[in-house]
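Local shape tokens

___
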Amino acid sequence: MKILALYLVNAECQWFREFIVRCSTDPRFLGFEPMTLVSNHHFPRHSHDQFSIGVIALGAQRSWSGVGQVSASAGDVIMANPGEMHDGIPVDNNARQWRMIYIDPALLARELKEETARPVEIVHPVVQDLLLARHFAACLLA
């Protein structure tokens, strides 16, 4: 299993939708944190302990990632692995808004245990896929 996005893109995004709804409505699900942020802050290189998956809702940013320099703008899906160094620089110092979820690796491993025994790895820090972005946004609003 190489690209987590494969689990997010299917006709109805059913697995991901169900996962998001369960995590966001059941307090027993630890390790799932949705977040929305609007900022023109320049975030220095850092990492997170969780998988980070989100959509740029407004504006644009440049960032360094494990695969080098990338750019993301409104509608792009952004992703990072746990421990992956990245930063975030707003384009033209304008604010950008993104909606993210942070998923604990153990939670994701439990959810995917029947799908794959191999570790999950995100290999594309930015995906320009309108369908995936729409599914993601719909999941967060569910």
Residues 1 and 120 are 6 Å apart (CA to CA).
